[in-house]
Amino acid sequence: MKTYNNKAWWLVLPVFALVAFSAIIPMMTVVNYSIQDIFDPNTRYFVGTEWYREILADPRLLDSLLRQFVYSLCVLVIEVPLGIIVALSMPRRGLGVPVSLILLSLPLLVPWNVVGTIWQIIGREDIGLYGWILNSIGLDYNYASNPRDAWATVLIMDVWHWTSLVALLCYSGLRSIPDVYYQAARIDRASHWAVFRFIQLPKLKNVLLIAVMLRFMDSFMIYTEPFVLTGGGPGTATTFLSQTLTQMALGQFDLGRAAAFSLIYFLIILLVTWVFYTAMTHNDDKG
Amino acid sequence: MGWMAWTLPTALFFVGIALLLVAMTVWQTVSPGHERKGFLPLTTSRGDRLFIGLLASAYGHLLLLALTDWPLWIATGVCVVGMVIIMKWG
Q1: Does residue A104 fall inside a structural domain?
Q2: How many domains is chain A built from?
Q3: Taking 80 as the threshold, does the pLDDT of residue B1 lie above it?
Q4: Residue B74 has what pLDDT?
Q5: Interface confidence (ipTM) of the complex
Q6: Does the CB of A23 have a partner CB in chain B at under 8 Å?
Q7: Nearest CA distance, B6 vs chain A (angstrom)
Q8: In the A/B pair of chains, how many CB contacts fall below 8 A?
Q9: Does residue A186 form part of some domain?
């Protein structure tokens, strides 16, 4: 396609200036820090690639990375199918529509640290509903001392907080499917499964890609909720990447290593985002 | 700019990236490119191929640092060759 005029690019300049200040300049600083041992901007020593070599061989960080991938995978495996089921069960007309939309939006409005605090209380075995019920049916549940329970609670907390987002996105996708598809399916006497498999799921593809990308990104940089709920414990069982990074940068004031670590973290996010972006635009081209 | 803790290698790196972007813009203006399909499993524009090449180079450097004790310029050399291949036939 022939390009007649590129003047519209000037309109991007304000955004470019904003991004420069909020992202590009800080990112450049992080790159600068990552190859130096920094005490303050005036007291610094060039170390080359030493931090990168150390980080890529540090078992604590590799464990944290693995834990993070497993966590994000669990989040996606639970929240995406659950969100689709919730969206499919939502009413299509009548008073039920606004009521269900408001109810589903409520968890999304709760701030992260409040979610952590809510689940800290709910999970307690003495006064918390969830912890008390599990203990009273004979399960030895304690999220503060048992890594398995801590993981389960952090995951359930995330599911409680964010499944609504997937459900709302899927619901909007479902509502955009023209009725003629369903009419054709009725004429063909298609089963519910066939309608889902051959009409709803293909039409939801792009929305689901966005939902998967958003949930992956959010879960991959999760910090506040597990920090408030478990503080990363017991031991390091729920210490995810961002918490490890924060401990390194602010706790140990190890700015050089933390900078190198954040760049690796950034590259992972960049790759995943690019894969999703490409998948989405590829779908658009095809569809 | 002292707070940004500049060093010569990082300054050269960013100047290189900036020059690359300027050169790509000029190239696109003078001789507009089109999306095409090469050995990569998707249709790509020049900019896409540059991005893929740069991202692959970043991972290539990290891989070398993680798995070997070799000096970094070996990865840089391999990545430059890789970048040319991706830009030309990708």
Answers
A1: yes
A2: 1
A3: no
A4: 93
A5: 0.92
A6: no
A7: 6
A8: 55
A9: yes
Q: What is the pLDDT of residues A84-134, one digit of tens each?
A: 999 999 998 899 999 999 999 999 999 999 999 999 999 998 888 999 999
What is the pTM assigned to this prediction? 0.85
User: Which pLDDT score, from 0 to 100, does residue A284 have?
Assistant: 63
What six digits make up the tokens of B48? Answer: 């896409």
Tell me which residues of chain B have a C-beta less than 8 Å from any C-beta of chain A: 2-7, 9-10, 13-14, 29, 32, 42-43, 51, 55, 58-59, 62, 65-66, 72
Q: What is the pLDDT of residue A2?
A: 64
Among A2, A16, A52, pick the best mutation site for testing chain B contact (most B Cβ within 10 A). Answer: A52
The domain in which residue A216 lies consists of 74-230
Q: Are B41 and A59 in contact (CB under 8 A)?
A: no
H/E/C letters for each residue in chain A?
CCCCCCHHHHHHHHHHHHHHHHHHHHHHHHHHHHCEEEEECCEEEECCCHHHHHHHCCHHHHHHHHHHHHHHHHHHHHHHHHHHHHHHHCCCCCCHHHHHHHHHHHHHHCCHHHHHHHHHHHCCCCCCHHHHHHHHCCCCCCCCCCHHHHHHHHHHHHHHHHHHHHHHHHHHHHHCCCHHHHHHHHHCCCCHHHHHHHHHHHHHHHHHHHHHHHHHHHHHCCCHHHHHHCCCCCCCCCCCHHHHHHHHHHHCCCHHHHHHHHHHHHHHHHHHHHHHHHHHHHHHHHC
Domain CATH number, residue A183: 1.10.3720.10
A258 located within any domain: no
Residue A37 lies in a domain: no
Which residues of chain A have a pLDDT value below 70?
Answer: 1-3, 283-287
Q: What's residue A1's pLDDT?
A: 58
Residue B33, pLDDT score: 85
- Scanning every residue of chain B, which has its alpha carbon at the shortest distance from the alpha carbon of A269? B55
